[in-house]
Design goal:
The structure is a homodimer of 261-residue chains.
Chain A: H1 19-28, H2 40-47, H3 51-64, E1 67-69, E2 76-78, H4 81-92, H5 96-110, E3 113-120, E4 123-130, E5 145-147, H6 152-159, H7 163-172, H8 186-199, E6 202-205, E7 212-220, E8 226-235, H9 241-259
Antiparallel strand pairs in A: 1-2, 3-4, 3-8, 4-5, 6-7, 7-8
Chain A binds a DNA duplex (30 and 30 nucleotides) through residues 13, 15-16, 18-20, 39-41, 50-53, 55-56, 74.
Chain lengths: 261, 261
DNA sequence: CGCGAGCGTATTGCTATGCGATACGACCGC
DNA sequence: GCGGTCGTATCGCATAGCAATACGCTCGCG
């Protein structure tokens, strides 16, 4: 996850870098791996610190509401305060507030599921999701990461990047197969990206979830760099691929354009 | 926000409490107040630390991806990594994963907006939101806080608490008016809570947003304590209050029961 | 046109703060 | 009932973080 926005590890100034802060964040990041509440020892191991340090950090985080004890198991899990930070992130983000009404309108107009994702180098992250009527199985939550190289939004954003950066991302990505339809071949992915450049939107079909297809268009900032993507997802049970692109392509392009800087 | 789960300030053991961690979190909490990216000095002031400390903390958080520089203004705002913590919170929470399919089904069945909120003493926090077709103005995001005393979900959860705790929450709350219909009188609120105990769900009408009414039922844990609430929100333009309660009351009760421990 | 207030950034020596080894009691399963 | 592992508590030491200070920059106001 060596985000270009994130400072490079090599260039960290130890005079300004606070070990305690880094350890604290590593503790909070220890939840990514396993399901269910974690023990103090597990968090210590995940953060690569000893039990004493984990004890002090967890005690403090718990005091502040960023960790909670699970009533059932007695283990630790992220606390409610985390959602306050989520809210701040969404509120302070230059795109989100502008995007929300546009997404809502897009969803009302198309009747499909509409998502907003943000680019973070090798991953995209869902920041908003507006589901459609018949979607009962919503595995995706705010904060979910998907690989840039095989998601529709990711490909749309790649299409707005210079070739060299696309190559860099594709080469650093772990291009494993998620469904039988995932396109993993480099040349084939490049074909898809060129198609997205030509059409103004990317299209993927069952590359992540079977039965699902997605059109997506990139949102760019003032410097014309892609920062986000708008997705429209539909079911193969209701649409054929060609008709879906014809119907959803123009609105998704227009929506993305309208919130670009 | 003195959550009962949060350790009491008085009983903090200074031997285990890390000042640096607390300062770091106070910096991140500095975004709550104002709109738009913050300067280093503003964050320092909000966290009540000097510029040096803020510099070290912000440098570290930025390195780790929890803060970002805003491209336009050069100011600071919460970073993408925040959404990873959101995802962890949602994934690790004992209720959320069980709740999501139930909420989706409820939304499909009723066609209304459906929310899941969590109780945090004087506030409730939205953890999931499934909007309805015609909702174009979605001011509410994940992490949004609403007052417990005047929200439908909050009243439903109050109804599941012993009288003494209800009194405590009501008295510590700032009961200001949000719309002309907000019920601020203590005795009147108690009437509403007793009605919720009788009916199994709470009902509010235009107390937070004009034109909106909400039914909500509490979700309880193994100890029968309220931890969350399911809301169904509808528009006065489409329903009358009585009909809405008759139609939405039973399904919201059933949904809340099905995810209670 | 230039002055100064405010910003972000960089450096330093001091000591309070966080460190990690250690120890204790509780709980569980082999 | 006995190791293993858990969470919790204690303590002296040195290092990690502290606060003061200084520098250059950009605005906005005079």
């Amino acid at each position: 996850m060596s985000n270009p926005k994130t400072r490079d590890d090599a260039s960290v100034d130890p005079r300004l870098f606070l070990q305690t802060v880094a350890r604290t964040m590593r503790v909070l990041e220890g939840f990514g791996r396993k399901q269910g509440p974690q023990s103090l020892a597990e968090l210590a191991a995940a953060a690569e610190i000893d039990k004493s340090a984990a004890q002090r950090i967890c005690y403090t985080l718990q005091t502040l509401g960023y960790l909670e004890r699970d009533a059932a198991t007695g283990g630790l899990r992220p606390g409610l305060k985390v959602l306050d930070r989520t809210f701040d992130f969404l509120r302070m983000h230059p795109l989100i507030e502008r995007a929300v009404p546009v997404l809502a309108e897009l969803r009302a107009m198309t009747g499909q599921r509409v998502d907003l994702s943000l680019l973070d180098d090798l991953s995209i992250i869902y920041a908003q999701r507006l589901q459609n009527r018949r979607e009962t199985f919503v595995a995706s939550l705010v904060g979910r990461r998907l690989p840039t190289w095989c998601s529709s939004g990711g490909r749309a954003m790649l299409a707005s990047l210079p070739d060299a950066e696309v190559d860099s991302i594709l080469h650093r990505s772990d291009r494993r197969r998620f469904t039988p339809h995932t396109v993993t071949d480099l040349a084939a992915i490049w074909d898809k990206i060129r198609a997205a450049r030509r059409d103004g939107f990317a299209f993927t079909e069952q590359e992540w979830i079977m039965g699902e297809m997605v059109v997506a268009a990139a949102v760019t900032d003032a410097a014309e760099r892609p920062v986000a993507a708008i997705h429209i997802a539909g079911s193969l049970a209701e649409w054929d691929a060609r008709g879906f692109q014809l119907r959803m392509g123009p609105p998704v392009i227009e929506a993305a354009r309208s919130i670009s800087a």
